[in-house]
Amino acid sequence: MPKRPRGSGSLYKPRGSRFWWTQVRTETGRLRESTRKTNRQEAEKILAVRLGEVASGLRRAEPKSLTVADLLEELRRDYQLNERASLPQLDSRIKNHLAPALGLVRAVNFGSIHVTDYQRRRKRKGAKPATINRELEHVRAAFARAVEDGVLSRAPKIRMLSVENVRTGFLEHVEYRSLRVALPAYLRALFVVSYYCGCRLGELLKLKWSQVDFTAGQIWLEPGKTKDKTARVLPIYRDMETELRQAFRFRNENFPNCPWVFSHGGRRIVDLRKAWHTACKLAGVEITFHDLRRTAARNMDRAGVPHNVIKRIMGHKTDAMFSRYRIVAQSDLAEAARKAEGLFARLDAEAGASGGVIQ
Q: CB-based contacts of 133: which residues, under 8 Å, 6+ apart?
């Protein structure tokens, strides 16, 4: 067989394989892939396609030394650059779980076997499916970023565990009053704003005092700082004004250069899990901070606030997303039954008065 011209790639059959494989030189190294073809002429056509992809920059060899730890570090730098409020959570998950278990795995070799093994080991240690999924979402995001940057040609498929422990908690108003007292002073304003407006925690933690207008009674969420990158306006009402004004006075007296609305010791709050858990225990309440978002949606709906207004305040784009949060509580069902009971009692009375009888 005549020797192929330099730069035109090559075909070969690895020992024990019935398929032809292509080998193409790229700027980053040799790219070897199976054609899944046993016919040489068909394999030649695939080789020609791959040569074209390499020439146009659509395909490149992946650096074999790149590890999952390297990808996670790039993701961490991105979080840091964009001042993501969840950076401490990412750091914790990388340090305690992801790096020890997956860090040394080469990115080009990473696959479903590593995902399954990680899931099994984490479950044996008592981690819940939702927690494991959140950790693996970081791995998925790290690979997606590498593909977007052209470092890798493809990302592995990471299948998540099914989650049945869906949270449907609400905070009743009497519980709100108890928890408000139990929380440390620096968290009260954050808690109250979230309870009344249902804003995402990450969006609230980015708020600066320049976005709070006490005269207009409004808080402005800037475009690019919200989850959907659009601007929103939150109303300031009831306990929100009291707590925000108190936080503003404390900041002016003690940390006048601190721009953040929700701060502790002059620094922006980034992690409140420990303080939140302690306060919930003191107040005798089992609730997550995210449940405040669900509670706010239900309370505004009960108050008769139009659904399109609630969606604008909370940042819901679709009715389907809004309906996930406007969950009916047991007390609502009891109230609905009471009202229906009254309606049918009246109907029965009217039917009796008119002499209506079923023959």
A: 160, 161, 163
